Amino acid sequence: MIETTGAEVLADRERLLRTLPHGEGINGIITTDRADKVLYVLSRYDDSVWWLPKSKSPDHAPDTLRKLDFTRIACEQLRSEAKIVLARKMWVEDSLGNASTRQTFDGLVCWLNWLHDQGISSQARVTPLVAARYVQYVHLLTTPNKPGKLLASQTKWNKLSAIERCWQFLRDTPCGFDHPWPESSAIALSGHKRSNKAKTDIIPDDILRQLFQHAEFLLNRADDLLKHRDALADFQPCSKNHNDQWEERVEFLKTRGWDQGPHALNTKLRDLRDGCFVIILATTGIRAHELGNIRRGEWYSEVRDGERFYFLGSRSDKTHEGTASWLCPEIAIQAVKILEQLSAPLQIALERELKKAKAVRDFKNVTRLEQCSNCIGLTKQKNKGNGVFLLSGNALYKRIRKFAKNLGVDWMLASHQFRRTFANYVVHHKLGDLRYLRDHFKHWSLDMTILYAMNETQDQELYDEIYAAFDGKRQAIVGHWLEPDTPLSGGMAGHIRQMRNRSEEVRTYKDRKEMIEAISELVYLRSTGIAWCTNDTGVDCAGGQCEDCEHGCIDDSQKPFWEGLYMQQIELCQIDDLDDSGSKTVERTMARCEKVLADLGVDINRLKEQMADVEAI
């Protein structure tokens, strides 16, 4: 590795900026990285392979994704043009992550190799007609791992964007060309439509319940499993024969109450690790790479108004946010502590590797090891000399899929599903739907703004996702109210019916969807359990009399509650020793229920008959 300085890097960049348009004498440092406070050269402009800095990749990302191999481009002239485009894009968008740079490079490889196959050796010969032929070519491409299946519109967009980038960054060079499609764009030609609709599936309740309960079961057994592991690590077999040593370990574990052998213990410890991952993902909304970036002791708690709040810290690379933290329940911290213990032996091995790498000045390895040191998601890779690495996103995906498969769960589980599922649970909790994780989400019933104000380093994008989920749910509720056949009750029902009529008469919106989005923006919404409350001031609350309150709206989704409440009052009427005060309370409550249920289209007499039928049985 060659050491360098910031001044030398800047000087090379200035020289490259001057020489790129002319295409002569192009040389200098293109990428650098830092290890042990030393800045070193990763790649020079004239190298056939450019390595992107490790610092711009998530710690778990494999090194192969940082490699830009220009020999993949068949023609030498087109290879030179690709370097100009890549260099300028990297400098213009300095904060660009390696994944985006790699995506741009792959798009260039496809475009430039197609040009070579057409007998075109420089982009100076590209015309709108040539670009149009490439569009046709891309539309006929199929997915490599699914023969016969055409590319998704997003993938087509990425490939066609390569031409626009070449046009943008080559205009002042001899290989520049006119705009490939003056009347259109890559996104339009790809047929890709940006949508606000979430593409990620929400994990179904029964699936998440099964995963979480098993993970919690393993967490409760963690102390015993770790004690067995540590005792086995300290145990010294007497025999020199490998098979006999194995039998000694089996017998040793039996004396400790574990009769399934060392292999089963290791399997259970891996399951425990994966269960801890599930708990953290499910209760924080953290991304996979942010989970990988969690380091030992990177959490804290605060007591506010007599209640303890827990915060989990990490580093977020996706939005270049840097240090961030997440409000979380105590069980997530318990999972982190167990992961700290599980990864302790690997951390010791990592420190040994780091010491060796520093001794031989292997800066590339020093950078990698320093970035994953003290992380809780460490693993050993047998195909890389049994070295210590951070668990990759792909490996995490496989582990949680296996965790689910071992439970017999029929669901294509992925780590990113937990984030959207988390946001969905938060919104449902706020809107009165208390599901089985209610104890873990209790803090989320508070106002999001207040929570964010508690700690400005919290993941703001997660709040955006929660608000987006809330908007979606709110639009669904308001849209349901505006349906002409939706039964409504409550003090606000009349206003909503009037709005339905007005919306038919006055066409102020492009379509019904736009109308619902606009109206729902004006509606503050929360659940009282018996109704939807739209009072955004908290003043003049009816105190449980939502059906008479001007801010209250009751729709058919709350009908089961009112039916249940009504049946309870019928049961109370049959109590012999109910005093006069109690009887009047029951009568008033029955009258309330009958009014609401009648508004919702329920046959009260039929409900009484059902109650009588149950009593007869």
Mind explaining what this structure looks like?
Keywords: Coiled coil, DNA recombination. Residues 251-468 form the Tyr recombinase domain. The chain is of the alpha+beta class. It folds into three domains: 6-190, no CATH class; 205-417, no CATH class; 420-559, no CATH class. Helix content is 53%, strand content 11%. β2 (29-35) and β3 (38-44) form a beta hairpin. α8 crosses α10 (261-284) and α13 (344-359) runs antiparallel to α14 (363-372). Residues 433-453 have low confidence and may be disordered.
Quick summary:
With 617 residues, the protein is an alpha+beta fold. The chain has 23 helices and 16 strands.
What order do the helices and strands come in, and which of them pair?
Elements: E1 2-3, H1 6-19, E2 29-35, E3 38-44, E4 49-51, E5 67-69, H2 76-92, H3 98-117, H4 128-140, E6 142-143, E7 146-150, H5 153-170, H6 186-190, H7 205-220, H8 222-234, H9 242-255, H10 261-284, H11 288-292, E8 299-304, E9 307-316, E10 322-328, H12 330-342, H13 344-359, H14 363-372, E11 378-381, E12 387-390, H15 393-406, H16 415-430, H17 448-454, H18 460-482, E13 488-489, H19 493-505, H20 512-521, E14 526-527, E15 532-533, E16 552-555, H21 559-573, H22 580-599, H23 604-616
Antiparallel strand pairs: 1-3, 2-3, 4-5, 6-7, 8-9, 9-10, 11-12, 13-16, 14-15, 15-16
Helix pairs in contact: 2-3, 2-5, 3-5, 4-5, 7-10, 8-10, 10-12, 10-15, 10-16, 13-14, 16-18, 18-20, 21-22
Domain Tyr recombinase: 251-468
Organism: Marinobacter persicus
Keywords: Coiled coil, DNA recombination
